[in-house]
């Protein structure tokens, strides 16, 4: 059996705004005619979701500096459609970097619960992924996945901005394959 054709949206990602709407309309009509509406809606939602991530930044220690660098002019994370927001109501991605303590755990969970579905979590750096050098301290959560589900782990103490960009691209791959 032949594999399904790729969603043609990758070809129109570089269009100007006034060219985008007619091109998108034409591509969607062709897809619906070929595959039926049910098989089109999910790929289109996945395409939109992976190209417009809005992270809520939980910067708790040194790794947050690398996160900030990734959004500066040199690494320019926004070129991947990632735009940090300050309200959890506007966010679909939580990026945790730094040492998570039990004292702030309930606040982190509350903010995660306030984010609308669908939502994802990236644990950036050894502290967020597993407690890092403070893992055995009584006050430190040994990994943010003890509090919320984590989709992508980024190792390093600290990870470089390139590693964070790689983590975002890995998350975009997960969203591309999303079925529900
Ligand atoms: S992983 Fe290392 S650089 Fe990152 S917050 Fe922990 S101690 Fe700091």
Explain this structure.
Helix 1 (17-35) packs antiparallel against helix 2 (38-50) and helix 3 crosses helix 6 (161-176). The model is unreliable at 1-7 (pLDDT under 50). The protein has helices at residues 17-35, 38-50, 63-70, 102-114, 126-130, 161-176; strands at residues 55-59, 93-97, 120-124, 152-154. The longest helix has 19 residues, at 17-35. By secondary structure, it is an alpha/beta fold. It binds iron/sulfur cluster. Iron/sulfur cluster binds at residues 61-63, 98-99, 125-127, 132-133, 157-158.
Q: List the helices and strands in order.
A: HHEHEHEHEH
Please tell me the total number of domains. Answer: 2
In angstroms, what is the radius of gyration? 18 Å
Distance between the termini: 24 Å
How would you describe the shape? elongated
- Ligands bound here? iron/sulfur cluster
Average predicted local confidence, pLDDT: 88
CATH architecture of the largest domain: 3-Layer(aba) Sandwich
CATH class of the largest domain: Alpha Beta
Under CATH, the topology of the largest domain can be stated as Rossmann fold
Fraction of residues in H or I helices: 40-55%
The structural class is: alpha/beta
Care to count the β-strands? 4
Tally of contiguous helical segments: 6
Largest sheet: 4 strands, parallel
Question: What keyword list fits this structure?
Answer:
single chain, 180 residues, alpha/beta, Rossmann fold, four-stranded parallel beta sheet, 6 helices, 4 strands, 41% helix, disordered N terminus, binds iron/sulfur cluster
